[in-house]
Automatic annotation (TrEMBL):
Main subcellular location of this protein, as a coarse class: membrane
Top-level division of the source organism's lineage: Bacteria
Family: Belongs to the binding-protein-dependent transport system permease family. FecCD subfamily.
One of the Pfam families matching this protein, by short name: FecCD
Subcellular localization, as worded in the UniProt entry: Cell membrane
Keywords: Cell membrane, Membrane, Transmembrane, Transmembrane helix, Transport
Organism: Paramesorhizobium deserti
GO function term, MF aspect, one: transmembrane transporter activity
GO cellular component, one term: plasma membrane
Name assigned to this protein: Iron ABC transporter permease
Length: 347
């Protein structure tokens, strides 16, 4: 019988049993997502009864309580979509680079998108949602290529440590450039600084609709890359021997992740650490097979960002903490733990 996993005691797990465990985790993840979606609509800085919640879900807005729920609905949808996008993008970036430290925030992709949007607003007066998204996607792509190029220089090529250092240095540089662009412009400084924290509040269905084509395209490109990423995990030479076009496979998967990061950053601002934390947790649940890992990373990313948004609403009542602050509190210690692990050198 073919074994597809190993227990902590070193014994092989039969394939049918391993797949059964994965299916159970899938049902648990979907149930958790449903619960968090419900809580996100029901919980906020203002208490709302279930009668008003059901009325608002039905499209009725005749009171302040129902209006509060109506505002939470697009916010909940965006938190789920953004979390799924960032979780999936993180898994793709770790698979493409074979780097356990890869993450849209750590590799500077989010800050590249952020800098591009800030320059577009300050110097070219972009204002439409489509212009924001296209600009963010372009900035994310340029930043990803730049970081990978810098991390590939010298001996050993693009090692995890070199990519992480190049990404962190690029993020710091881009963050300083954002400040340099924003400081002379008092008319946009307040809005830009609020957006840069990273949050899902105040969104409308219209804004989500503008980003949806980019997100759908990004999800499709990432998910169809699962088998190719499994081949790339074996090494470039072996993958090429199996018939894979290595450069094309990497480019397609990376482009999907860039679409997800750019569109999400344009709407929410740069939200860090979701793409780092989620894939590592999912590997503990379903292993390294990208056919399972990618969908699980999307679901777990949605759960994480929804939970972070709910915590941000209730932890500082009557005020709120933006979701980007909450994820930073969770992700920063996790990043330190990953760096300190001696065994994590490649996937």
């Amino acid at each position: 019988m073919i074994a597809s996993g190993i227990t902590t005691s070193g014994r092989a797990i039969p394939s049918y049993r391993a797949n059964g465990i994965k299916v159970l985790w899938l049902f648990a993840m979907v149930a958790g997502l449903g619960l968090l979606l419900t809580l996100s609509v029901a919980v906020g800085t203002r208490y709302v009864g279930w009668a008003d919640i059901m009325a608002a879900l039905g499209g009725k807005v005749d009171s302040i309580d129902q209006a509060a729920v109506a505002v939470r609905i697009p916010r909940t949808l965006l938190a789920g979509l953004a979390g799924a996008s960032l979780g999936l993008a993180g898994a793709i970036m770790q698979g493409v680079t074979r780097n356990p430290l890869a993450d849209p925030g750590i590799l500077g992709v989010n800050l590249g998108a952020s800098l591009a949007v800030v320059i577009g607003v300050a110097w070219f007066n972009i204002a439409s949602a489509d212009a924001y998204i296209w600009t963010a996607v372009l900035g994310a792509g340029v930043s990803a290529v730049f970081v990978y190029t810098i991390g590939s220089l010298g001996r050993g090529g693009a090692t995890p440590l070199k990519l992480a250092l190049a990404g962190v240095a690029t993020s710091v540089a881009f963050s300083s450039m954002v400040l340099a662009v924003v400081l002379p412009r008092a008319d946009i400084a307040g809005g830009i600084r609020s957006w840069q924290v990273g949050g899902v509040g105040g969104v409308t269905f219209s804004a989500i609709a503008h980003a949806l084509p980019f997100l759908v395209a990004g999800f499709a490109l990432c998910l169809i890359s699962a088998r190719k990423l499994n081949s790339l995990a074996l090494g470039d030479e072996l993958a090429a021997g199996l018939g894979e076009r290595v450069a094309v496979a990497r480019a397609v998967a990376a482009f999907g992740a860039i679409l997800l990061c750019g569109a999400t950053t344009a709407i929410c601002g740069p939200i860090g650490f979701v793409g780092l934390v989620v894939p590592h947790i999912c590997r503990l649940l379903v292993g390294v097979d990208h056919r399972w890992l990618l969908p699980f990373s999307a679901l777990a990313g949605a759960c994480l960002l929804l939970a972070a948004d709910i915590v941000g609403r209730i932890i500082a009542r009557p005020n709120e903490l933006e979701v980007g602050i909450v994820t930073a509190f969770v992700g920063a210690p996790f990043f330190i733990w990953i760096v300190r692990r001696q065994r994590v050198r490649d996937l």
